[in-house]
Design a protein that fits this description.
3-stranded antiparallel β-sheet; 6 helices
Amino acid sequence: MTVPNTPPDPARADGVTDAVPAPYAADRDPYAAPGPASEPYGLPPGVDVTAGKDRPVEPLAQRLLPELRVGAATVLACLVLGVVMGALWVWLAPKVPLVVDGNKILYADPEGEQRAGADSVFVLLGLGAGLLTALGAFLFTRKRGGGIAVAVGLAVGGLLASVGAWGLGRWLGPSGDLVAQARRVGNGGHFSADIDLGAYGAVLAWPMAAMVLLLALSAAFGKREEDPPPYWVPGPPVPGAGAGLPAGYPAAPPEDRRPDWPEDRPQDRWEDRREDRREG
């Protein structure tokens, strides 16, 4: 006689077995400590999941070299354009007329706006140069997807080029030695004062314009990654998935580790007879 609710013997003569299919057999204790990394749960022994992790890592300098080249090229292009901007500023900026009156140097037009006009011309040239360099950098690096090197190159290059154009304009423009100029023209003579920036923030016009346009172009026409398919669409088969597993070896634990029991078991028949005796 068998005690009620006793599971059948795994080695029964009627073919019913409680054995769990490998690799989830009794030899794998669920409460045991995890095994080595080469034999994780769900993978057969001998499959090394750490294979490929010891591949040589590319040096940081070698990975940053392309970015440094792009950034350096952007800065160099900005500096060359800064020379052109300085020459244009000297040519287009309004001059401040001065007149010699005895031992004094006076403004020929005391209410003139030539100083503010020089600042305005510099800002307009900086905005144009910033837009031009940003457009060129975006078109040049569009295939590679831009990158932080382009933005940093435009910001640093635009600022250096603006400062360089300011200094070049002061060097190419009229002399700043007013006394020597007054002695040269004599009493009652007219000459032009040197050009200079009254608002030092004008040097930020170039990098700010470049950053704004680069951001707008990247957002509208920049290279984008493909959107992943919806979760209900099955993805393409992964090459090499399941390679190296023995035939019939499950890749993941089944939902129910216990095998399906036959519908008509001797234990069930015994339970039915017991219930019938109680009802009778």
